Amino acid sequence: MEKFKRFRRLRKSPLIRDLIRETKLSLDDIIYPLIVVPDKKVKKEISSMPDYYQLSIDMLIEELKEIEQLGLKAVLLFGIPEKKDEMGSDCYSPQGIIQRAVKEIKKNNLNLYVITDICMCEYTISGHCGIIKDGYIDNDETIKLLSKSALTHVQAGADMVAPSDMMDGRVKAIREILDENGFSETPIMSYAMKYASSFYAPFRDAAESTPQFGDRKSHQIDPGNIRQALLEAETDIQEGADIIMVKPAIAYLDVISKVKEKFNVPVAAYNVSGEYAMVKAGSKNGWLNEKAVAMEMLLGIKRAGADLIITYFGKSLAKWLGK
Asked: So what's the pLDDT on residue 289?
């Protein structure tokens, strides 16, 4: 009889460690976010997000061809319009930047699942997620335009829409307008638990969506709250969300875990720009091994309970894992 358990037997070699690993990353889990801009031949690197770019539609198509070859299967599109206005008109125009991009993707017959972000922050002069009245976002008027945006995205060919605005009732409004127009089979991935986080700063530079005044704490969840997040998730599921998301990921692993335990729907987690930028900066300065840290971080998100991970490391992960 042994005096103690010998757990190291199952850690002795890489082969046995691989055989018994409980949580594994797969490209099937990954959604790669991309930012689309006007004009042609644009591939502009974001200084705070090394190896990540704004792309015009023509360059987006080239990027997507590479992504497809790498084995990635899903993308999430964000758009920057040629002109912004107070009503965020390009967000819901049939000729908007995302609508045109989706049409072009479908015309090229790329074998990719196309998800589009639904929000107004990239499209409004204010940089806020909705229509401003008396210094405050008008919730009900905003969701009318968000639902219109979702409809035009799906009419253009989007496979799924992902409302990220955090307005109350927007999932219900989007579900209703899609159903009424013959798109009852189109799923909704809701940013149900989007926190008022400091980790978004690099993306706001990349998407040119920094608020021109104030902040987004009136509609995004306070970082200290989890019960409120669970209520948001429950409500969005009742309103018709097919997938619910936690954003950011790393500082909110407990939220991912709780949500996974409580709700019987797929859970997505957004590995956001600040999380990406920290690893890139640490790697550039020789403080971190980029591949090792990124893989560990993504594995932790998956282990916490995420079924899907939206990450700027998508292309790198595809190369690290191999097709």
From this structure: 97
Count other Cβ atoms within 10 Å, centred on residue 87. Answer: 15
Show the beta-strand stretches assigned E in the chain: 30-37, 43-46, 49-56, 74-79, 113-118, 132-133, 136-137, 160-163, 189-194, 243-247, 267-271, 308-311
User: Could you say which of 84, 148, 247, 302 is catalytic?
Assistant: 247
Q: Are 80 and 36 in contact (CB under 8 A)?
A: yes
40 classed as catalytic: no
d(CA 93, CA 153): 9
Catalytic residue among 148, 194, 258, 260: 194
- The pTM is what? 0.94
Name residue 290's amino acid: E
> What amino acid occupies position 62?
E
Q: Identify the pLDDT of residue 2.
A: 67
For residues 248 and 274, the answer to whether their CB atoms sit within 8 Å is yes
Q: Which residue has the tokens 């993504």?
A: 298
Q: Which amino acid is at 67?
A: I
Token pair listed for 180: 């009424």
Q: CATH homologous superfamily of domain 24-321?
A: Aldolase class I (3.20.20.70)
Query: For the chain, what are the domain ranges?
Result: 24-321
- How confident is residue 64, by pLDDT bands cut at 50, 70 and 90? very high
Q: Nearest to residue 141, comparing CAs of 114, 173, 163, 110?
A: 173
Which residues is 189 bridged to in the sheet? 243
Catalytic residue flag (residue 194): yes
